Amino acid sequence: MAQSSRDVFEVQVDGLGCPFCAYGLEKKFKEFKGIKKITIDIETGDFRFEYPADQALTAEQVVKQVEKAGYTPKTWTITRADGQVETSEAMLASASSKGSEKGELTVRGVCGMCKARIEKATLSITGVSEANWDVESNQLTFGYDPSKASSDAVRDAILAAGHDVENKKATDEAYDALPPCCLYRTKSKH
Amino acid sequence: MKKFSSILLLGLVALISSCGTEEKEWSYQETVHLGEVRPIGLALTDEGFWISDGDNNRLVQTDRNGKVARYIDSLERPMHLDVAEGVVYVPQYGNDRIGVFAADILQQTQGPGNLDAPAGVSVAGNTMAVADFYNNQVHYKNEQGQWSTFGKKGSEPGEFLYPTDVQITEEGIWVADAYNHRAQLIDFEGQSLAVIGEEQDLNAATGIWVTETEVFLTDFENDRVWIFNKQGEVLQLLDDEVEKPTDMISEGESLWVANFRKGELLKYALTPVQKK
């Protein structure tokens, strides 16, 4: 059998809610010239495409492009043309050890995509081991090791991701980079 | 075409006074299952529906019972379409083109300016309007064939936040101002004439359908369809069987709602108001 000349990328994107967001993600990936066979399942968030193997597209580039589009990659698998398989670990999986302190913050957001982004930003802080944001109450709870992490660091990471925290507002630049579904300031002004 | 028709007018007459002063309201009748089709936009002709099937990159023509007559493939994320004088106009979110399907031939046209994810089109006579999603604008081609561009990103009157659908009427261009969660009417020079739905706590007003007296607006995330009069007062809220609605269209005393997620068309009909 002839060897394929294309790598296959499978990314699970958290919280895709509507066709406008899903097709928007696909559109952003068309910036990768040579991309083929793009499929996206809105219900599951499964996003799949093929890319020329000689371009050696990396997982980091893919993750960066998903995030650039305003979405949150959860897991990924790359099946290279030569048969090698690369996989991620679940980026939002709970850590094996729990933090000794519990933190709480009010974080503004409106949807499942906001949840994925807020929790990912929280877990990006070294020393934070668990995070849960509730869409109805807008309450974020997280566990952390106070010798390594702080509530201020969590707050700053979430602000940088585009979400207002307590009485601090994200910059307009960060907010404007959010996908349409996540524009909580227009949604909650009434 | 989406402009008012005599059929719609008849429906409205029925709504107001088919039996003297009898009041009528829209009530759920049946569900038409579309199988694998994920409907986003609806248009209606004598033969039945034209449906844009975004997930499957195709147009689908069905009869009024949902029986497929044919598929038109090779589109890229077709969205809110329109039909005028036998020609189907299809905005394609994926390739920034307006597809024109006539006489069994699909042609790709550039449309106005540098579209970035056109999500809705409306055609009336020689005029055309296009909802330009990522540019947060509405484009309008007048009778002389000249294009104008209206709006910018924002939430003030005359501004848009990811518009997804448009409809040309005699009073102006109605816009599904999706992520401002409202409908907006602008005149043919882009001035805002009315804003509707801001008080109803919609979550993504993704589709719009306008008749002589009513404005239908999808409330995508909340699984509802709102019906307003032109003054913005709520006439009715539809939620029976509605799930992730993307578009609506009416004909006489019938209304169809596209249920995107479940691949369905819901049929509603005008019926006498139930006395409580």
From TrEMBL, chain B:
Per-repeat ranges for NHL: 148-189
Keyword hit for Membrane: no
GO molecular function terms noted in the UniProt entry: ubiquitin protein ligase activity; zinc ion binding
InterPro entries given in the database record: 6-blade_b-propeller_TolB-like, NHL_repeat, TRIM-NHL_E3_ligases
Highest taxon of the lineage: Bacteria
This protein's UniProt keywords: Repeat
Gene Ontology BP annotations: proteasome-mediated ubiquitin-dependent protein catabolic process; protein polyubiquitination
Protein name: Glutamine cyclotransferase
